[in-house]
Amino acid sequence: MDCRETCARLEDFFHGRLPADELEPFMEHIRSCGECEEELKSYVAIEVGLEQLDDDSSGVYDPEGTYRDCMERAKTRIDWYLVWKSFQYAMTAIAFWFAILALVLQAKAGLF
Length: 112
Ligand SMILES: [Zn+2]
Fold this sequence. Notes:
mainly alpha, elongated, binds zinc ion
């Protein structure tokens, strides 16, 4: 994922709408590209500021904390996505071997 693609996904990332399979390349780019990391931090700071204006709350303005929360949530989503992919892979492998077993048993029973 390059800088242009990363910047186009800042809003979706912040609102947790980035598809799980795009999340990992997005995070990798943010970690390796200082400019995009700064861009994301600025975006988060503006969003947090606007949300507080909307809420009219007197809460503490903490864009750094929100940024850290976003990154933590994204890491957790990636972890679960990888678990899910492993599970899917295991299920596919099991289905494949059951299909082979069924063919062998049918062949042995003289059905072919
Ligand atoms: Zn970049």
